[in-house]
């Protein structure tokens, strides 16, 4: 486990999913954490669970610039500084394809997924520039491959990844490191929420994904929030002091290649083009051998 003793961190979207796992992991590693979220009941429960000497919950809509700037000040006022910012809050955004794209929904998605990463970083810099710090941004495997998420979400997440590289260059003069984490198929409520399900049902769907989604990647299981949180904690720690501007895939091997590259029971491009299943191909080979 990473060592975050003495460090103060902000994690947006900290009341559930990957962000909640981040709060738990960072506290276990010794950090004091400000958890920002719009889910007040879950956030307050989180603060009560750990105590406000370890976790402070702050209501924060990351698309509201005053609230986003305010959470930076809350960390400094309550814990005495700011060493780590994890820009993690997000949502599936608009599912519209290009031809049917609602441009207002596009703007809302970009504000939630991309603008807030720019803004969160901007607001954190004044508190980090004297002593340095680490900024981690949650991107996605949809930033590198088509077919994993709607187009607006995917483009925003590509922007997050590239922003992290550019910000790492620009902020290096202050000793501020910036990296992006690209999660794969992680069992959180974001999938159900993207389908319009109420929060409770979305949480239940996340549990179902844990049971049913393991065959989607070479690792043989669905990702968990703590898989991403452990990577973020490492990047936030002094052990990663030589790492900045990176894009870190944490996807169980999902992007290594098409399914047939790691699953012997799957077909391949040639079989797919011919409309032949692996079983039929094996039968043909057996007949030719006779």
UniProtKB/TrEMBL annotation:
Pfam families reported in the protein's UniProt record: adh_short_C2 (PF13561)
A GO MF term: oxidoreductase activity
InterPro entries linked: NAD(P)-bd_dom_sf (IPR036291), SDR_fam (IPR002347)
Keyword Transcription: no
Entry-linked Gene3D superfamilies: NAD(P)-binding Rossmann-like Domain
GO biological process: steroid metabolic process
Keywords tagged on the record: Lipid metabolism, NAD, Oxidoreductase, Steroid metabolism
Family the UniProt entry places it in: Belongs to the short-chain dehydrogenases/reductases (SDR) family.
Protein name, UniProt field: 2,5-dichloro-2,5-cyclohexadiene-1,4-diol dehydrogenase
Organism: Hyphomonas atlantica
